[in-house]
Amino acid sequence: MRLPHPLYGLYERRLAASLPRDRVPRHVGVILDGNRRWARSIGLSSATGHRAGADKIAELLEWSEDVGVEVVTLWMLSTDNLSRDPEELGPLLEIIEGAVRNLAATRRWRLQAMGALDLLPEQTARALKDAETATEGVVGLHVNVAVGYGGRHEIADAVRSYLRENAAKGASLDDLAADFDVQHIAAHLYTKGQPDPELVIRTSGEQRLGGFLLWQSAHSEFYFCEAYWPSFRKVDFLRAVRSYAARERRLGL
Q1: Helix or strand or coil: residue 218?
Q2: What is d(CA 238, CA 20) in angstroms, rounded to the nearest whole number?
């Protein structure tokens, strides 16, 4: 239940002030879930829910900047979602294209497209690459936009990339098998060169990853929020960061 506005603002400020700045995650992954259910709960169309979800993204990025996060990965569309009813998928892709263009137009964040862009319609893939090119010189929060993304697909892409790179150098299959190590996969992921996500947030009450950052999240802390994505508030985000900061990280031990 929402607090009355004056108390809500006071609580939000106190919560932000209480965060230990030396324990804020560098990289936060967010599964933006619940757009359709949010829309249905108030009698609106799925497209309306997706638009409301798209409008929420800039707020999340601002909140992330405020607490000192360096990288945010947004899972906006999975490879599984590409098999949705075309009557819903078409408008959803248009909403994603518009959201990415709007984020790029701010010149505030550096955007990086990640996912199987070859599986996307040409127009969507072009919008993602154009946004990436337009913001490549921006210094500040790095935002990975995962569209047509699946964790298994990413790992398979990483292995293919490694094999092709070394085959081009003349390496034999036996040589590759003998030397192959986990770091070779890490070096060919979509997020190569970035810190792994310390915190992964999923909205809508679902308590599963669904294939999100499977390799990178091996040591992540998870936070599951009941709010549907369009209803996700700054206090929800701050609570997630506070929960992360309070945990004893064992890094897989």
Answers
A1: helix
A2: 11
Residue 1 has pLDDT above 90, yes or no: no
Domain extent, residue 218, equals 24-150+196-205+212-245
Q: Is residue 165 situated within a structural domain?
A: no
Residues 6+ apart with CB under 8 A from 193: none
Q: How far is CA 145 from CA 23, 170, 172, in A?
A: 25, 34, 35
Has this prediction a pTM greater than 0.90? yes
Q: What is the DSSP letter of 253?
A: -
Active site (catalytic) residues:
33, 81
Classify the C-alpha dihedral 220-225-231-234 as positive or negative: negative
CATH of the domain at 45: 3.40.1180.10
Look up residue 64 and give its two tokens. 């992330």
